[in-house]
Amino acid sequence: MSQSSGVHYKTFLLLLVVVTIAFGWLLWPFYGAVFWGSILAILFAPLQRRLVMRVGGRRNLAALITLLLVLLLVILPLVVISGSLVTEGANLYQSIKSGQINFGAYFQQAMEALPPSVHALLSRFDLADIPSLQEKLSAGAMQASQFLATQALSIGQDTFQFVVSFGIMMYLLFFLLRDGPQLSARLRRAVPLSDGHKQHLFRKFTTVVRATVKGNVAVAAAQGALGGIIFSILSIQGALLWGVIMAFLSLLPAIGAGLIWAPVAIYFLLTGAVVKGAVLIGFGVLVIGMVDNVLRPILVGKDTKMPDYVVLISTLGGMALFGLNGFVIGPLIAALFMASWDLFSSATNDAAVAPEASASVTDGAAAGGPVAGTPAAARRARPE
Questions:
Q1: Is residue 298 within 8 Å of 287, Cβ to Cβ?
Q2: pLDDT interval class at 294 (50, 70, 90)
Q3: Is 220 helix (H, G, I), strand (E, B) or coil?
Q4: Which helix (H) or strand (E) covers residue 315, if one does?
Q5: Per residue in 215-245, pLDDT tens?
Q6: How far apart are CA 314 and CA 308, in angstroms?
Q7: Please, are residues 177 and 44 in contact by the beta-carbon 8 Å criterion?
Q8: DSSP for 234-278?
Q9: 307 DSSP 8-state letter
Q10: 125 CA to centre of own chain
Q11: Least C-beta-crowded within 10 Å: which of 67, 77, 133, 377?
């Protein structure tokens, strides 16, 4: 390559990087819509392929049917649940504000039921100031419920942005469903890796996306529904709200839903409602906990082939950096990280084995004997 061609190539690479960054910056205000449009396209791609065969290869019609199914199966249930959650949060806020629900009083009752030895231990760590802790708990509960109550107003104020983002997501989803195979093929050709590496990484990408979203959503829906049912049976106010919160918290493996039902069960035990506390603990451990212990490894860990602790840490890190989107982005980055290092270690081992094999061939030839793999060696090895 001449010096002039080298300069042209480097200039072209610089231009490619600049325009790619500029395009990403252009899409950033709607990255959530683009992200979830891509995720839904990956999830519903198998259905799209089956529909294309059913409707005689008409990709537009198949994409439209898939889009309607996404609206009915995904979007509408989320809208209904979100509206119910905001309403329940507003009612809870009014109950706390009017004094009908007093978390500070509940906390005081629980603290008073503790034995003297526990009070002495709390005093040793400066945690015996019950009025101060009670005030902080009441203020925290008020702020949390007020946040839920104000979401209705914020949603109304951001209606235009929400409609635009939703429209972009659905519009993009239609074309990703229709032209997904062609776009995937073009993307594969553009990535400067070997065919084997590209196939491995793309397969890992789609597997992790499908396993993470389907697995986490299934676990969250099951745990949230079960938690809401047992709260309703035990006559705990705001059962729907607590069920939805448990569903969101269940995105955190192993510890999620227990952050809600465990304190309630402890409160029941401390205040003398032993039967309710025992029922809630038994149901939480044996039913809600088993959903996480059984379904998540089957739906998430088995397909992604990642240890549970990697799933937990990557989910927490992803949600800390990217918000709710991080429950997909975090495990995805972790899976691609592990897959890339596996490919690198395999390539390094292959490169280390190649010189050894070459050296053995050379040594055999220098000794004058037949080298393994040569016609002479084959004749020597063949029985007479």
A1: no
A2: confident
A3: helix
A4: helix 308-322
A5: 777 788 888 888 889 988 988 877 877 888 8
A6: 10
A7: yes
A8: TT-TTHHHHHHHHHHHTTSTTTTTHHHHHHHHHHHHHTT-HHHHH
A9: -
A10: 38
A11: 77
The residue type of 77 is: P
The pair of three-digit structure tokens given for residue 134, joined into one six-digit string: 């009670």
Using CA atoms, how far apart are residues 303 and 106, in angstroms rounded to an integer? 44
Longest dimension (CA), the chain: 100
The span from the CA of 364 to the CA of 371, in Å, is 5
Q: What is the DSSP letter of 298?
A: I
167 and 32 in contact (C-beta within 8 Å)?
Answer: no
Residue count of the chain, please give it: 384
Tally of CB atoms within 10 A around 226: 21
Residue with token string 């005689």: 56
- Residues contacting residue 168 through CB under 8 Å, at least 6 positions apart: 30, 33, 34, 37
Q: Tell me: the pLDDT tens digits for 300-330?
A: 656 566 777 777 788 888 888 887 788 788 8
CA dist list (Å): 159 to 68, 93, 118, 162, 313: 22, 23, 51, 5, 34
As given in the structure block, the two tokens for residue 194 are: 């070997």
- Please tell me what DSSP assigns to residue 371: P
Q: Give dist(CA 245, CA 226) in Å, integer.
A: 12
Contact yes or no for 107/137 (Cβ under 8 A): yes
Question: Cα separation of 315 and 307, whole Å?
Answer: 12
For residues 251 and 220, is the Cβ–Cβ distance under 8 A? yes
Contact between residue 66 and residue 51 where contact means Cβ atoms under 8 Å apart: yes
Q: How far apart, in whole angstroms, are the C-alpha atoms of residue 351 and residue 353? A: 6
The alpha helices in 99-158, defined as continuous H runs, are 103-112, 116-124, 130-157
- Nearest one of 305, 294, 329 to 315, comparing CA atoms: 329
Task: Assess contact for 261 and 269: CB atoms under 8 A.
Answer: no
Amino acid at position 94, single letter: Q
